[in-house]
Amino acid sequence: MTLVVPEGLAAISNTAVVSESPAGPGRRAVTFADSIRMSTYLVAFVVGELEATPPVMVGKTPLRIWCVPGKTHLARVGQQIGAFSLEFFEQYYGLPYPGDKLDLLAIPDFAAGAMENLGAITFRETALLVDEAAASHTEIERVADVVAHEVAHMWFGDLVTMLWWNGIWLNEAFATFMELLAVDAWKPEWKRWVTFGVSRAAAMGVDGLVNTRPIEFEVKAPKDCEAMFDLLTYEKGASVLRMLEQHIGPDVFRDGVRLYLERHQFGNAETTDLWKALGDASRQPIPEVMDGWIFHPGYPLVRVEADGQGLRLSQRRFTYLGEDAAGRWRIPVVLRAWVKRGIIEKHVLLDGDDVVVPLPAAPEWAIVNAGGHGFYRVSYAPPLLKKLSGALPRLSPIERFSLVSDAFALAQSGAMSAAEYLELSARFTEETDRNVWAAITGSFAYLNRVIPSEQRSGLEALVRHRLTTAVERLGWEVEPEESELVRQLRGDLLRAMGTLGNDPVTQERARELYARQRAGGGAVDANVLPAIIAIVAANGGEAEYAEFWERFRAARTPQEEQRYLFALAGFRSPDLVRQTLGHTMDGEVRSQDAPFLMRALLGSVHGRELAWEFLREHWETMARVYPGSAYRRMYEGITALVSPHWESEVQEFFRSRGIVLGGKTLEQYLEQLRVAVRFQGRESAALGAYLSRPRR
Ligand SMILES: [Zn+2]
Questions:
Q1: Helix H segments across 99-210?
Q2: Are 345 and 370 in contact (CB under 8 A)?
Q3: Ligand 1 midpoint to CA 465 (Å)
Q4: Which residues of the chain have pLDDT under 50?
């Protein structure tokens, strides 16, 4: 590879520069070393006004971060996790890094999150550059995740490439799995596998639709490839790999991966090749366990009921529409029970319709999917659920998370009433884990989109009631020795309290702190500041809007830019909603971000009506100017248009325009809308009664 470029511009490709020479007036030729034998989609060259950090050496490999001039001071976290993960993977894979240098490049306009070009990985700025002193935990974690993910690809994807697009899930699921392993090793205090519960649940949200797909399926058209970059490929894929890793043991799993890479390096491979290598390492029939999870759509709902002294577990496929859908899985179930004042843990393979797990006495309580690694939901018979919800402190955070997440899914499907779910949520006022809170506040946000506006104040009162204990316990100030996760939880809860809960005291305090911060006098914690910005927007007028717009344009870090940009979608007055809608089309917002701003407006109960009108007017222009992958995702916003009237408008819109989103994406959005509208029809009277009860 030789690039002839104007003087003064940096030129980067997959390998190290071997020579540079003049190439006519104002130009120079840059020649790069030969790469390893690799797939053509991994070839990259980047030319532009860029500057690099000094390299850090990881063994023999120099690692640098590149960005537009003036931003190298934001490169520290990226370089640290880059170096850590490079070394971590060399050890895990048992093979040296296959390149001669590693450059990580932050590109200001970049449609995807990142791209794993060998030795020259390209990123969105938010995924690589961060000011660790001014960023929230979530923002820093995102950088760590994406960098570790891409570095994992240098072997799994680059050194060995899938033969065809049907195998892309394995590439991406594996890189996601490895990303979690590496970040968990880098910062054990982040408890990354617990946070992964949120991603797993998001995948279950899609995979619980009738219009889901198997993780692996035949790919013929380019549109089908695009549709594969979704939650099922990444998050469901990583979940089932984690389930397998836990099932056969981490060391055996790693040995199988090493065998696979050794056998296929510098070449192509298929899913079956990995199963073969894992089978050879574990001496277990891997396809028998895995095929149901990989080649069949959906996942099981495990029902738990008392059977004599023991428990009966039975399985059927879970769908939100409750339709009879076929499917049976080999489920490695982990069960923990409190029996006769002692803990009993059982590992059961549920591979038929049902199985009875004998216990020495009837349990005080029992949790199924203990440890939370299983990709299935659990439904407890009412007496068992009652006992379990009285034993919450005995459960781990991920187990409490699954309990809430599964219960709300059951409510969405009609297997549990919304009132029962809300009663269950009342048991969590003392909760301390941010993932559990994310599940709870997420369900309240869903209800907010479903209820009519006259019930909104009732929902706000319920949100305040559920959150007050935790919000008061945490306060606004950071305590010494407090973990990052607690600080992030504080931000999350304050945001929910001030927006969804519409709490006037929280809003007043947020305005005060924002004013103080603006005057340069405040030292608001970096985890709380994004919440303050969101709260100020939710209650803000013209002046705040103008200020946030300026702040967005003058932002000093990618994270700051995102906070102010997405805060614009939080303003509630119709005039300001219209202004933000205008900005999705006026070229002032990058096309990599505008579709997501549009999605946020569609998802807001204050913006959705105007946004839907705007979308119908401008979708053709959007299809032209937005990057394809982001344009497709924009339409996810239509799932918030929850009313029978909107639903028929939405269906008519897509039918008459012939819009194709690839794979089953459109069918999935429409079904999610169907689920919400059906929930609304079924529950609106009961919810109205529940929400009008006085609280406090
Ligand atoms: Zn990837």
A1: 137-153, 168-186, 192-207
A2: yes
A3: 41
A4: none
